[in-house]
Amino acid sequence: MSEYFSLSDCDVIGFDLDHTLCRYHLKETSRLIYESFARYLVDHKGYDKDLLTLSPATWDFCFKGLVLDLEDGNLVKLAHDGTVLRATHGTHDLSTEDLLKHYGPKREWKHFNSLNTSYTRSAKYYFYDNYFDLPGALLCGRVVDMLHKRGNQVTSDFWKDMVAAIDHNYNTSAFREDAGTYFPSVKRNPGRYLQPCSDSVKAWLRRMKNAGKVVLLITSSHSDYCRLVCEHILGKDFEELFDVIITNALKPGFFSLVPHQRPFRTLVNDVEDSEGLPSLDKPGWYSQGNWPHLHELLKTMTGKQDPKVVYFGDSMRSDMFPASSYGKWETVMIVEEMEGEGVPSGSGSGGAQARSSSTEAPAEPREKKGKYEDQGMKTPSAASGQWGSYFVDVPRNTDGEEEGLKLSWCTHSIHTYSTMAIPSVETIADLPLDYKFPRFSPDKPSTTGYYPRPPDSLLKWAQSEPSV
Q1: What is residue 375's predicted lDDT score, i.e. its pLDDT?
Q2: 466 pLDDT band (50/70/90 cuts)?
Q3: Which residues have a Cβ under 8 Å from the Cβ of 247 and sit 6 or more positions away?
Q4: Which one is catalytic: 11, 18, 129, 133?
Q5: Were 280 and a residue from 69, 223, 297, 375 both cysteine, which residue would form a disulfide, CB within 3.0 to 4.6 Å?
Q6: In what helix (H) or strand (E) does residue 270 lie, and over which residues does it extend?
């Protein structure tokens, strides 16, 4: 395998939509998602109304990569080897003594092997790895706090209510029926939540098609929401940018449910045909489906028996792990957390148009900023005071002494299942398609594969590792 990766070597270039091609205003969106879930719990399940009230400082708890242990209500941050770096019960930190008492002298999380080999969700834990469900981690922590305050025992029963809240807001008919809080809010004011793609990104997509690449859009969002998002970020003619559009793809099952895969379905007025297609015969817009049938179509479209595919996505669970493991595709992971650690997010290799790493991109006019911004609400992609860096951490022993930097499990997963990592597609949109990017490799330092450069904490970790 080459130590470099280039888009020009790929026959097919695919994209996830949400938090990949479409960047969101994370502060606004996170507040909306939290309110969507919390309001359901209060209005439909009788939970305390205090759940609806948040101070800006509370958002420091909102941190991607946490795992909720449904058996005890703990949220854990894992190291690359499955040991617990930090944990909370509800929103309250567990001390080093508590960690040793709960997880043993080696601080081993007992479900790690299951999570690390499948990345699937379980009746025993839930992995928060995308911004659509991330505010739920904060809400779950606060629910556990509330149960303790009431003197109730914490059981996994509260999770059934959380799942109902997620389904109420995100199910495939919610957009059409104006159900829940999330979709009606985005429909009323998409510009408050969605960031339009730059002209550079639109031109980049056109360059791919002009170079003879097959361009895919594969999203688990339903077709009606996908259309709203794409028209806002790419324009009314967005369908011209893609050869194949697949909505309601139900990832990771799109990749993993083999040989019991879901068939592709055609759409009429955003309603899926009840009859599944036996195969995929031509380009177009489809719903559900599976990668083996898509692969057969791509062989026909490219005229190659084994077309080389790359897929851009933001989720380890839904995008990177299954596309790499089952589809054997190249994968480019969008890691917005890089921006919070000194990595430029603008276009061009030097980030000449880079935006400030301390703000979301693009920055909103001051008069449009919500009341929380000036009061210090942390964007969910930034490092957390309570949880530390997304990429590394420093566990402490019982004496409170630091034990040395360790890679997080999320970082290890990126290095294992991604070809490369970037903070946004904007970062590489102005580069030529034949630009050669250093790729992640077990033979290379762990800092190789991040473009335009590794995050600060990883550079610090590399300096502390004599073998790197």
Answers
A1: 57
A2: low
A3: 219, 220, 221, 222, 223, 226, 267, 285, 286, 287
A4: 18
A5: 297
A6: none
- pLDDT for 172: 86
Q: Which residues pair with 68 in a beta bridge?
A: 75, 126
Whole-number percent of the chain with pLDDT over 70: 92
Measure the CA–CA gap between 18 and 34, rounded to whole angstroms.
17
Instruction: Output the pLDDT for position 385.
Output: 95
Q: In what order do the strands lie in the sheet with 12-15?
A: 264-265, 284-288, 244-247, 214-218, 12-15, 309-313, 330-334, 420-422
Of 121 and 196, the one with more pLDDT:
196
In this model, does residue 360 exceed pLDDT 60?
A: no
| Whether residue 60 lies in the annotated active site | no
End-to-end CA distance of the chain: 21
Helix, strand, coil percentages for the chain (3-state, nearest 5): 40, 15, 45
List all residues 6 or more positions away from 100 whose beta carbon is below 8 Å from its beta carbon: 107, 398
* 288 contacts: CB under 8 Å, gap ≥ 6: 246, 248, 249, 250, 254, 262, 263, 264, 265, 272, 276
Q: What is the mean pLDDT of residues 70-85?
A: 95
DSSP state of 108: B
Contact 80, 412 (CB under 8 A): yes
Catalytic residue among 11, 16, 224, 456: 16
**Which residues in 297-391 belong to E strands, given as ranges?**
309-313, 330-334
pLDDT at 259: 82
Reduced to 3 states (helix: H, G, I; strand: E, B; else coil), residue 439 is coil
Does the predicted model carry a pTM greater than 0.90? yes
- Residue 18 designated active-site: yes
